[in-house]
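In response to reviewer comment 3 from the previous cycle, which asked for concrete evidence that the modeling workflow produces usable outputs, we include below a single protein chain processed end to end. The sequence was submitted unchanged, and the resulting structure tokens are shown without manual editing.
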Amino acid sequence: MSLRRWLAPGIGVKRWLLVLFAGLLLLSLAFAHFLRQVTHDLAPGGLTGSVIDLLTLQFLPLAIRGFLVGAAGVVLVVIGAYRTVRVLMGPFQRTDADQPLVELIYQKRFLARGPRIVAIGGGTGLSILLRGLKEHTSNLTAIVTVADDGGSSGVLRTSLGIPPVGDIRNCIAALADAEPLMSEVLQYRFPESPGDEAPGLAGHALGNLLIAAVTAVEGGDFEDGVRLVNRILAVRGRVLPVTATPLTLHAQYGDGSVVDGQSLIMRTSGIERVWLSPAEVRASEDALAAIAEAELIVLGPGSLYTSLLPSLLIPAIRDAVLAADGLRVYVCNVATQDGETAGFDLAAHLEVLAAHTAPGLVDVALANNSFAARTPPDWSAERVKLRWPPVGFAAPRLVLDDVVDPDNAHHHDPVRLAGALVRTLESNRGSRHRAVVRTA
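The workflow returned the following structure tokens.
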């Protein structure tokens, strides 16, 4: 099984084995020519001639002689090549890896040829998406919101003046090769207890402190700090903050009241519009370049107002998505969210997205059409109904698929969601700018 895997398409070994074989064949021919010249003048029946006849199997018929020598040569070449690769690659293989070396090499080479995908958002939804997409490509960029102001991220934001790091930590953990082990380490929170010897660490996630520390090492440059953490943890793809400037999210409600701060907005329903301060910030140059080069741009899933829109409200990011040549897909949540989207259906999600950004921002809307998933007993939200926007609305193409976690109707399934997105990309190649309006 291992030998067949080494010869499987895509691993990039067969061509070099062929070159190796051709070189060995030429060396063999050269040696045979040299041996023939050396033994040409030897007297027949002499001691030296008898030894050479024995070594070259002259006592066997020509067909059998060629078969035995050829078989022995093939066996030695295979064993030598395999052991050479093992010796050269051994120091770079994780000692705790469950997969054989050939599987790791195949996976790396396969993923390196995957599509260029950009995912924009934050929160739990983005990390779920990344866990699925990293099995299809390593050309993956997560552009993460920096508007969080609660929990450990909020404390570090206030005390150190850096953008919030919680969503960035979640995405890095999701893309780590050693996940879920790396996820457990990065997500570990220091306990809050009266007898804690280090009360200053209470409630902080280890991953948050790591990003803050690396940022300080990089001279306070937040983007450089996150880049370095990506390299240190060898994530599959990369995670980028949408901007290096901490953002504050504001929301206005139907009664005219205004709430400031993402952590408070999440708890209140009846939102009419949201906006950012500062209004004009410099977007990450790496993020803008990734959007321009992407074959697929995924918006969501995640909290509509507090995870997705904060990134798209930055003018440079919105304009980059509008100008992008890649297929732009909005992934609608599978369930409503108390305090943000209570009572929202598919059409309401799309209308809010268009109202806060621009008409025609997305080419495809991907929504769940399976409603058999298990509902958690403490669940107060409801499944998102599939009402399509009214006639006259610049609606994107609609794609329906089973993308819900069968054990939790509140979340997407990472494998199913990633598969649906890759299929959508393949089926829509070349039709990026084709406008289609559908009603349902």
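The two ends are 50 Å apart (CA to CA). We consider this sufficient to address the reviewer's concern, and the full set will be provided in the supplementary archive.
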